[in-house]
Structures are given as structure tokens and as C-alpha cells.
Amino acid sequence: MTNELAQQVDEVGPAMPVEIQGLGGTPDAGDDFMVVADEKKAREVANFRQGKYREVRLARQQKAKLENMFSQMGQDEVAKVNIVLKADVQGSLEAIKGALEELSTDEVEVAVVSSGVGGITGTDANLALASEAIVVGFNVRADAAAREIIEREGLDLRYYSVIYQLIDEVKQAMSGMLAPEWKEEIVGVAEVRDVFRAPKIGAIAGCMVIEGNVHRNKKIRVLRDDVVIYEGELESLRRFKDDVQGSA
Hints:
Elements: H1 39-73, E1 79-87, H2 90-101, E2 108-117, H3 122-131, E3 134-138, H4 144-153, E4 157-160, H5 163-177, E5 188-198, E6 202-212, E7 214-215, E8 219-224, E9 227-233, E10 238-239, E11 242-243, E12 246-247
Parallel strand pairs: 1-2, 1-3, 3-4
Antiparallel strand pairs: 5-6, 7-12, 8-9, 10-11
Helix pairs in contact: 2-5, 3-4
């Protein structure tokens, strides 16, 4: 353990930066750093934490599979973009994951079903296959096993080195899944002046066009005292005795 002057130290106080060597792996941001009495106790704590980590990881993977299964079985109107995310460092991973999850809307949910630091592995590819997810790599690449699965199954694999490009492409994918926004445009207004009845046809409305144009086969809405009493298509349109396509 060395301090900022590269001097070896045996103990440090709060807020003192140090460099530690000899760790078996890279700790994640926010991990607790415990000091114990001896190496035996340290191994016990490490083994316990590794077991808990494996349980949580397996539970997350299984949950992702089950959620996908139920979404396929149900008739949920919310579209879902599943993503398996791998990045080169923990800081980038957390930033990208947070930005992606903030993209969710009422119509499209962005779900990072799995994330981690390091290259894209066969396990990642299989999870993407099971959860119908896009595989996203930030400054990382897929190994041979992952590439074989991705190519065989036709999975969507995307590489990025700039965060904003990654976010923009996910936004574009979301826009393709959004339900179209329909805007009503009133093209004509007619006023019913009289109602005639024909034996084989039924009620016929005699109307005067007061705004715009009225066209056959267009959608119409009939109002009485501003209350909708009928909605449908205009099936027949006549001007006097002649069939016409439109009337102004």
C-alpha cells in the first residue's frame, strides 16, 4: 500500500488516497472496504460475498428470462427494448446504464437486463438470445464464443466508443416502436337540414355543407347538441339524384 508520494504505508486515515496492490480483481465503485484481524477472517468474508454475488447474478438472469416469458404471454401495450450492456470500465458502465434507463417512456420501456465490465462473452450472448435483447459493447468487443452465437442466431450487436452516439441510436430504436400519434383534421362540416326515410335504405340525411368539403368514404362523426351519436364512414353521397365523390 503506497500513498500519493509512492511511499509505502501501513495505515491510512479518512480521505487519504492510496494505491493498493495484490487484489484478486477490480473492485466496483461504491464497494465497502473492510479491515479484519487476519487473513483467515478475510477469506471467510470474501467467500461469503462471492457466494452472495453469484446468487444475485443468477437471480437477475432468471428474472430477466421470466419477465420476457410473461411479456410474450400477455397482451401488454408497452413496447420493451431489452439491452445487454458491457463496457470497459465501471464508471462508463454506470453512466450509460443510468442514461439508458432514463429514456423509458409510458409507451416504450428500456430495460438493461444485464450489465458488466469486460468483453462480451458467450454467456452474454445467450442471455441476449433468451431475453430478446440488443447486445451493446462500449469500448469492448465480443469474444469468439459470443461471435459464433451472435452470428448463428442473428442477434443485434452494436459497438460504440462515444456515449452520445449510443444513446442517440437507442432513441431511434425506440421511436420505431412508438405507437403513431394520430392527429385529427376536420376537412368539412355539414349541417343536417332534414331526414328522409327510404324503405330499402333507411334514414337519409339531407345536409348543407357549411365548411370545407365532404367526401365519400371519409370518416364522419354525427353530433347532436355537441354529443357524439354516431361515428363511421360516409358510405353514400349524392347531390340531388347524382352520386358524387365529394361536395363543397
